[in-house]
Amino acid sequence: MEHELVGLHEPGGRWRPVAAGPFSLLAVALALLPIEPVWLWAALIGAVAATPWLIGALPEARRRRARPHWRLTEDGLERLGPGGLSIVSYERSRIDGLAVTSDDGVLTVFHKFGRNAVGELTAMGMEPLALFVTARRVGMPVHILDGEAADLLDPAADDADGPLTFDEAGLSRDHAAEQRLLDQEAELLAAAHEPPRTTGTAEPADDDEAPRPAPAASGELRLSSPAHLPSPRRIALFGALAGLLGATMIARIAVEGADGFGPRLAAGCWALAATGAVLVARRRVLRAAQVRWTISAERLVVQGRGGTSLDAAEVAALSVGPGLRLDPVSAAPRSSSLAVLAFDHRLRLIARLPAHGLDSFQLAHALDDHGYRVITPGTRPPRTPDYGLDGLPDIFAQVPGGRLVVADGGLGWADAAGDVVLKMPQDRIGGIELLTIAGHAWVRLYDSDGDEFFAAPLSALRISRTDLRETARRAGLPVTDAEYDAYLSAAFHSAVSTLSAPPPEQTEQPEQPALTASTTAATTAPAETEPEELLPEIDLTPPPGPVTAPGVLLDATRRSRIGTYGMSVVLCQVVALLGAVWLGPELGGFAATASWSAPVGLLVGLGGYWLYDRNRSQLRVSSAGLAVVTRRGRVQWDLGRDRVGGVGIDDSTERMPRLVVWSPGGRVVRQVSFPPDLVELRRACERFGLPWGPPDADRPAPPPPEL
Predict the structure, then answer these.
(1) What are the tens digits of pLDDT across the range 346-398?
(2) For residue 37, is the peptide bond before it cis, meaning its omega torsion is within 30 degrees of 0?
(3) Are 45 and 31 a contacting pair, CB within 8 Å?
């Protein structure tokens, strides 16, 4: 076909074990059975443990392991299964348009009878730029919309009759994101019609001609991702030795005789440990693969899990930026911080080149130096703050021109005419807190029990901070504005400091004899130095740091501590039982050994974690910065306020969510290993002026829009 976009998927043919978990459990079950003769027992354990690898090596099994994938063509959007059979199909004649929601990245199909959410672009294996360009080439309108796909699927959004348009979809268009895609498409069109650069020395252009592009660099340049430690060869050797050790121990048990339950249990444990070690080693080897690029003016050679070679004449432009890559273990599409899309002169996507682990700066400049047209995404969209409009009633959005007012001794929501349509009596308000978040004034409301039930920026409530504070205090409502009170206190003390300062003490001078001419010259020099002696001493004490400044000390949550206690005890019990199985025949049997090893394991688990817990780490939050200190006072690390750009949860797709500290430039500088209470941490950051959430290197995130 002229224009075709195939989602990222594994073509199949890869050797992988089939149902390794069930077969491992079956091998353990066979090891516990009293099968005679003993050589048959050992042979069955080895055969069952090796069955997943033998099944995965069959050619028929490799062909059937191909994953379903999506394809966008002139005929429409369809999902293809193994063998190229169509599972789901959206015909082109029935599609009115496509839309991608910016918050969740879900592709939605608009048709005559409504709309349908197809799925996330990441799971479909399609990049936004490739989908945008291909859909426009085949004549499908595609737009980027704000919000989530769940808002698009709300039937209440379709109140108007007539054909569906994107302006009536219930969400506004994300013009910034759509404009970035249009700009990249324009760069692709320009690159498709530009002549390629050649190697050699550039000829000077005439005065009446446009300046010619710089010549491409000659020679080859090699780039590679950092090597994994330990190396894949060492990991594979460890897995092979673990499997060989397990097979040897099972053979030894079979030779000595597996008459009792203890030897059979030991053989089952060895079989489970060996198969588990081999599977873990395989996963580590797959994840340790390096990405190697060989860049020249004639071709591109990329080696990762597979090899890709592209001639420079076929490539019109390369899009360098965030993209997709196949998960090395599950072979499912995953987000990647860096990937390269290769487009030809007909704006068709001809290759997806992996680049995770490489430096984007080095890669982009190396490609440009060798004559390739490099396209990068524009300014990334600002990150929205992590503060939500929790508890906003639906009536707020239904009142035109609504605003927050203080009326009848409580709070209310008034319309444009001033009529209060929603009231909150004074007995339900336990406290009103005014604070500043990301440079914007916010209000928090607490009930009579002290629990927070409402939080919103004052710009969304259409009331100023001064009006809310003064009117609420006149009405007798409990208002707390710590920043304003601190300002008044500082202004008051600075104003009265000169009035309250005591006058200098006058000391009586003793009577001195009359000075003669000879003594006058002798007393002149000391008199000149007397004003310098009266100068006050300057305090050169440095300001308090993150460890010594007044602040809040946050500990790990009780739930996590109890869970860690339990995990420590469970691990020690497992080691005790395995030791009883291993050393039981020499120490009087499994039951006798377990009778004293299990209590010892319990005491070791509880005592060992108690020794660790008594000196556990704690997070200190202050106006001077952040610090992690132990309960005995040892400082593990500290960061000054000028080095903290944000504090929050890093939910990167390639690792588990973690609590980190970002620099002002957006780089992760520290990771908090223990989980404190996130609500208390957020309030502490707001109290001491530390930003909560990831920093935005481009521009500060605005407050939520008015309702």
Answers:
(1) 899 999 999 998 998 899 999 999 989 999 886 444 444 444 444 455 556 66
(2) yes
(3) yes
- Other beta carbons within 10 Å of 283: 13
Q: What are phi and psi of 625, to 5 degrees?
A: 140, -155
Q: What is the pTM of this model?
A: 0.58
* Angle made by CA atoms 528, 534, 540, in degrees to the nearest 5: 125
Cβ atoms of 110 and 153 closer than 8 Å: no
Q: What span, in angstroms and rounded, lies between the C-alpha atoms of 667 and 695? A: 9
pLDDT, position 291? 92
DSSP state of 385: P
Please give the distance of CA 542 from its chain centroid, rounded to a whole number: 37
Q: Which two tokens stand for residue 371?
A: 């004559």
- Which helix (H) or strand (E) segment holds residue 660: the answer is strand 658-662
Q: What is the pLDDT of residues 503-549, one digit of tens each?
A: 555 444 444 444 444 444 444 444 444 444 444 555 556 778 888 88
Report residue 536: phi and psi, to 5°.
-70, 150
User: Tokens representing 678?
Assistant: 């996130």
Cross-strand partners of 339: 321, 354
Do the beta carbons of residue 661 and residue 668 sit within 8 Å? yes
Please write the tens of the pLDDT for every residue from 632-680: 888 888 888 888 888 888 766 556 677 888 888 777 888 888 778 888 8
Residue 610 to residue 632: CA distance in whole angstroms: 14
Whole-angstrom Cα distance, residue 101 to residue 120? 9
Across the beta sheet with 403-407, the strand order is 403-407, 410-414, 420-424
Asked, as a colleague might, if the bond just before 502 is cis with ω within 30 of 0, I would say no
Look-up of token digits 């008594």 = 614
If residue 319 lies in a helix (H) or strand (E), which one and from where to where? strand 317-326
Query: Encoding tokens for residue 683?
Result: 């309030």
Per-residue CA distances from 157 to 150, 168, 379, 481, 699 (Å): 11, 8, 31, 40, 32
How many CA atoms within 13 Å lie on the side-chain side of 44? 19
Query: Nearest 5°: phi and psi at 85?
Result: -80, 140
> Cα–Cα distance between 690 and 48 in angstroms, integer?
58
Q: Return the pLDDT at 295.
A: 93
CA distance 438 to 646: 11
Structure confidence by residue, pLDDT tens digits, 209-225: 444 455 556 688 999 99
Let me know: does 666 contact 695? Beta carbons within 8 Å: yes
Buried b (16+ CB within 10 A) or exposed e, 204-226: eeeeeeeeeeebbbeeeeebebe
Task: Determine contact, residues 268/31, Cβ cutoff 8 Å.
Answer: yes
User: Do the Cβ atoms of 221 and 301 come closer than 8 Å?
Assistant: no
Nearest alpha carbon to residue 289 among 332, 322, 326, 339: 326
335: closest CA among 365, 312, 318, 356?
A: 356
CB 90 within 8 A of CB 109: yes
User: How confident is the prediction for the chain on average, in pLDDT?
Assistant: 80
The closest alpha carbon to 455, from 704, 151, 684, belongs to 704
User: Whose structure tokens read 């003390």?
Assistant: 493
User: Are 106 and 149 spatial neighbours (Cβ–Cβ below 8 Å)?
Assistant: yes
* Burial degree of 167 (CB within 10 A; 0-12, 13-18, 19+): exposed
And the tokens for 221? 């340049």
Report d(CA 587, CA 593) in Å as an integer.
Answer: 6
DSSP string, 81-99: -GGG-EEEEEEGGGEEEEE
